[in-house]
Amino acid sequence: MSKTSKIKLKNLKKSFGKKHVLTGLDLDVKKGESFVIIGGSGTGKSVLLKCILGLIQPDNGSIKIDGVEVSDTKERPYEKFGMLFQGGALFDSLPIWENVAFGLLHGNKMYKDEARILAIEKLESVGLGEDIADHMPSEMSGGMQKRISLARAIATNPEIIFFDEPTTGLDPIMADVINDLIKKCVKEIGATAISITHDMASAKKIGDRAGMLYEGKLIWTDNVKKLDKSGNEYVDQFVHGRAKGPIKWVVK
Amino acid sequence: MTNPFFIFLAALGRPVLGTFEFIGRPSYFAWQGLKGAFSRPIYFKMLRKQMIEIGYFSLPVVGMTALFSGMVLALQSYTGFSRFSAEGAVATVVVLSMTRELGPVLAGLMVAGRVGSSMAAEIGTMRVTEQIDALTTLSVNPVRYLITPRLVAGIIMMPFLVLIADIIGVMGGYFVSIYALDFNSTNYIKSTIQFLEPIDVISGLVKAAVFGFLISLMGCYHGFNSKGGAQGVGRAVINSVVSASILILISNYLVTEMFFTK
Ligand SMILES: Nc1ncnc2c1ncn2[C@@H]1O[C@H](COP(=O)(O)OP(=O)(O)OP(=O)(O)O)[C@@H](O)[C@H]1O
Ligand SMILES: [Mg+2]
């Protein structure tokens, strides 16, 4: 693995009113690396990805993409990015194939026929057939929408891909198919990936390194293989899903 | 900050700043949207879709409104004017009222309710389901893709809609006058045209373009800035219709003054 940083965050801070979501987060993801973020619900994992994508303006700190500082603007080199949104975020006014082909049609200015063929290829890679291509997203089940959304995120073969809970809501077999697919994207295309997941098996499978987000910082980062024996009591509690431990669910 | 002078200053400043923000934010939004019409990429497919939505699918409701307004206008002015034996003015009153005022204003209010609300609902839903964020990550500027076509379609299509409303309204007045009030058809048509000046129709069409812009702007602005789930979208819809209606009535006065007082 090469040592150049693809995404480098320093002292990233973001608050919504009095709620401090990110409190000085540092992260360095190398080119071609697959990084997994774990952490409790509402700790700011999705907010972190949106800050990197320029969808949320951070209050403070530095964001470098390929060494270029971008934290002071909303502009990003979007042709480099692919994003799977937690909620899917499919365009409900467009048929499924156009959803998947959207980046190809508008970003890459590809012709319709060509884009459609590629879109159907991508749909097949997430286990969906050509027969659904002309249906609308609202006719699909939740898990199918997630996979369509995944196909859209990887359709343009982006250099950087973010997956916000890619396997949530999928059955175990399909989850494993998706894990393989994410691995393939990273290995074959050489993409740099950041994935958010609550699924430890998935984390170990798709990630090179993992980090745990807690109280606005990555309190632990190491090789995914160390997740089980991290020696960090917060990570231990989270990975083994214990109610007792240093992490308290504060009922407000 | 206990100095009474500062308290006074703050009390004065807050509404002033609030007013600037209230006017400034939609204005900036409108500028961003209109700017998109003068450079590439232009999303013609989206533009065509919006033009059909505003111009074609609003025809029934606007046509009905115009028809009955024209009819009641003839009836009212006839029964009113007969008190001072001025029934002869009915045709002129109908055509001037329709083209100058009722055509554009009623069409504007109906379209605000029909199209403005659906724009706010659609764009608002896209906002709260992160579809607008998704557009951005797919290298498409959401303002260009969603807002520009709607603003342009509003400006272009409303005059057409109002022209049709004018014609239908005048026809409604004609039918009532001929069949219910026993006017002579040739005379009625003659006096409809006699005092009609081009400026009457043109001023109405200019109003229509302004209203079309305001309706689209309010629908897009409130939808684009909606937050907080289904409830937020509901609020955006209400705000878009109410603010568009009020702006239509205010700008109606301003445009009238611009055209007819010298
Ligand atoms: N636009 C926003 N306005 C206000 N607060 C927000 C906004 N977006 C997120 N938050 C708050 O920031 C916190 C972190 O949200 P985020 O969506 O990042 O959580 P998460 O870690 O992704 O959780 P989950 O695993 O449940 O998806 C939450 O408490 C949320 O209420
Ligand atoms: Mg999340």
Structure description:
- Chain A has 7 helices and 10 strands.
- Chain A has helices spanning 45-52, 96-107, 112-125, 142-154, 172-189, 200-206, 233-239, and strands at 5-16, 19-30, 34-38, 60-65, 68-69, 81-84, 160-164, 192-196, 209-214, 217-223.
- In chain A, the strands form 2 sheets. A 6-stranded mixed beta sheet of chain A has the order 6-7-8-3-9-10. A 4-stranded antiparallel beta sheet of chain A has the order 2-1-4-5, covered by helices on one side.
- In chain A, β4 and β5 form a beta hairpin.
- Chain B has one domain.
- Chain B contains 9 helices and no strands.
- Classes of the chains: A alpha/beta (252), B mainly alpha (262).
- Chain A binds chain B through residues 50, 53-55, 78-79, 81-83, 85, 87, 89-93, 102-103, 106-107, 152, and chain B through 41, 122, 125-126, 129-131, 133-134, 136-140.
- Bound molecules: adenosine-5'-triphosphate and magnesium ion.
- Magnesium ion is lined by residues 45-46, 86, 164 of chain A.
Give the topology, please.
The complex is a heterodimer of chains A (252) and B (262).
Chain A: E1 5-16, E2 19-30, E3 34-38, H1 45-52, E4 60-65, E5 68-69, E6 81-84, H2 96-107, H3 112-125, H4 142-154, E7 160-164, H5 172-189, E8 192-196, H6 200-206, E9 209-214, E10 217-223, H7 233-239
Parallel strand pairs in A: 3-8, 3-9, 6-7, 7-8
Antiparallel strand pairs in A: 1-2, 1-4, 4-5, 9-10
Chain B: H1 4-35, H2 44-56, H3 59-81, H4 90-128, H5 131-137, H6 142-180, H7 185-194, H8 198-224, H9 229-260
The complex binds adenosine-5'-triphosphate (ATP) and magnesium ion.
**Helical coverage of chain A, percent range:** 25-40%
Q: Specify the overall morphology of chain A.
A: globular
Q: Count of DSSP helices of chain A?
A: 7
Distance between the termini of chain B: 50 Å
Question: How many helices of chain B?
Answer: 9
CATH architecture annotation of the domain at 5-92 and 159-239 in chain A: 3-Layer(aba) Sandwich
Structural class of chain B, by secondary structure, is mainly alpha
Mean pLDDT across all amino acids of chain A: 88
Say how many strands of chain B there are: 0
CATH topology category name of the domain at 5-92 and 159-239 in chain A = Rossmann fold
What order do the strands of the largest sheet of chain A run in, or round the barrel if closed? Answer: 6-7-8-3-9-10
Sheet with the most strands, sense and barrel status of chain B: none
Q: What is the typical, i.e. mean, pLDDT of chain B?
A: 92
Radius of gyration of chain B: 22 Å
* The CATH fourth-level homologous superfamily of the domain at 5-92 and 159-239 in chain A: P-loop containing nucleotide triphosphate hydrolases
Low-confidence stretches of chain A: none
Shape of chain B: globular
Largest interface: A-B, 21 and 14 residues
- How would you spell out the order of helices and strands of chain A? EEEHEEEHHHEHEHEEH
